[in-house]
Write a structure and sequence with these properties.
Helices cover about 80% and strands about 0% of the residues. The protein is mostly helical and about 80 residues long. The chain has one domain. The longest helix has about 35 residues, at about 10-40. It is elongated, with a radius of gyration of 17 Å. The protein starts with 8 loop residues before the first helix and ends with a helix. It comes from Camellia lanceoleosa. This is Signaling peptide TAXIMIN 2.
Length: about 80
């Protein structure tokens, strides 16, 4: 029961509001990623669009990182 971190519901519940905010940011990141991908396809010489698309991917992964961080902070 103590192995693998499967008994941390308190960390999940505490992190849920922050994950919801991060979910909104990830939706914004998804829109930025689509726009950056389209711009980099239209103008491949524009390397800043690639950086913006990579930053947007970080925003998309943010809710999962926040939930994992909160669950890791609460001991079983």
């Amino acid at each position: 029961m103590g192995e693998g971190g499967g008994c941390r519901p308190l960390g999940f519940l505490l992190g849920l509001p922050f994950a919801l905010v991060a979910l909104v940011l990830s939706l914004v990141g998804a829109v930025i990623w689509v726009l950056g991908s389209v711009l980099s396809c239209l103008c491949p010489c524009c390397c800043c669009c690639t950086g913006i698309a990579n930053m947007a991917m970080g925003l998309i992964k943010l809710p999962f990182k926040i939930i994992r961080w909160f669950t890791d902070q609460i001991p079983c």
